[in-house]
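Researcher: I need the complex structure. Ligand is arginine. Inputs:
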Amino acid sequence: MIEEIKQELKNKLVSYYKEKYDTEINIVVEEPKKATLGDISVPMFLVVKTLKRQMPEVVDEAVSAIKSFNLPLESINPTGPFINVFVDKKAVSNKILKEVYASKENYGLSHIGDNKNVTLDYSSPNIAKSFSIGHLRSTMIGNSLKLILKKCGYNTYSINYLGDWGTQFGKMIVAYKMWGDLDAIKKDPINQLNKLYVKFHQEALNDPSLEDKAREAFRQMELKNPEYLDLWKWIREESLKESQQIYDLLDVSFDSYNGEAFYNDKMDPIVKELEDKNLLKEDQGAKIVDLGDDMPPALIKRSDGGSLYITRDLAAVFYRKKEYKFDDILYVVGNEQKLHFDQLKRLVSKMGYDFSDNIHHVGFGLYLTNGKKASTRKGNVVLLYDVLTDAINLAMKQVTEKNPNIKNKEEIAKNVGLAAVVFADLKNFRGLDIEFNIENAVKFEGQTGPYLQYTGVRIASILKDKTFDPNNIDETLFDKPHYFELVKLVGEFKSQIEAAAKEYAPSIVAKYLLNLASSFNKFYSLEKINVEDEKTRNTNFLLAYSVRVVLNEGLRLLGIKYLEEM
Ligand code: ARG
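Model: Output:
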């Protein structure tokens, strides 16, 4: 809302100078250095420079111009070369809160993405390996981005690009044939397959020929060896079942589960196109594309004819462009794959397509446990499912302590536990590595998901069974700093969502919600909400109600459930 007034003030000043002096001046509007100076500040340096006049004259003229604009401003205070402006707190607050009241969960809806298609590639676990906590980041960041982009008007298409093809299946098959115990595997497929995978790597340290055997087994798969393909299909199904448990728990879904294997029959035409465009080059029997001095060449075909991760991604990006007509495509994948996506973009651009600029690697940092990266190969993997269950159990303890007789305890504990894990992740800028501490994440105070849920529940209980008339309020209250600070934050919701959509950063929404909640809790410590005086009470209720609407909707955008009780 203040953002909008800022923009309008800027536009009006630009038109003013255009009309009067027939010159385009780039007016800057900013936040004053100190909040006590005003809500908006307009530096006049550029105007002075362009018009070649003295500062005092220019400032005087600008002040009278601003006075003549029809904007909800309370006072205009020139301070040296700056014009500091206070907005009309009553009018602005009234407008913000009325809008929340009228729009409810649609408050904050943006149109920056109207008529645009975004394809999102996220989660994408590797079949036959456990769904590690490392994939949590991709799943939750991707899911939240989808919700944020939808809120901004984009059409989204979400793809779980399963890692269901590649040499690791060759390893799996070799390990299965050498050490597999079918009965044990049938009972507990993923765990047993994981053990086999770990064993393969241990044994391969002493016997490097195992790697050759694995490559050969994978080659057989690519040649459609029926025995191997059957085994692969079964492993794929079992793995998906396991992942689905996690998606159900987190309430995450996808429009497509087409993984790497889906592109097996779609690579040849792309390789041919590379050839026709003279991009493909022999290199010790393999086929590569030179990508320039700043990055290594892309290996497109192995010397044994086998395809690679990048070959499949290249086929996939063209398929998706054609099928989903994306304006932008996001790959929510760890930072360690940066080079891979740089290469993908360069390949597309070398092939002569301009959409390479619309390919975005939305990278994220490592999930550290005790300062170390979790890894499947060495077997010290942290299982996402276990982390989620631990968090839910801890949440159960806390809920029971706080509210022993609460109904639906299981359901509440589940949602609190999940909120803890998801928020601990999303509150950090995605590019950073994060160290996860489950005890801290589940706490009801501090910068946690449960803290936000708890703030919402507090408001819900204040408003329970109450009615209020949003048209019968005391506007003078908005002149008080703790009122206005809170209203102002409520009014920022939309611009925060838009910023998150532009940066592909759910953390912007997460941090905003923390500010909102702490501003509300500060307000609540200073002000009794349910007071005698009717107008004051209506104002307080309307404000609390608005905070609750924004908190709920903000949590939803992060993929976190809000609660009525906890
Ligand atoms: N399965 C891969 C992994 O876990 C991630 C796939 C990401 N998406 C893609 N289009 N390459 O490392």
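Model: Summary of the prediction. The pocket of arginine is lined by residues 121, 124, 126, 161, 163, 313, 331, 333 (CB under 6 Å).
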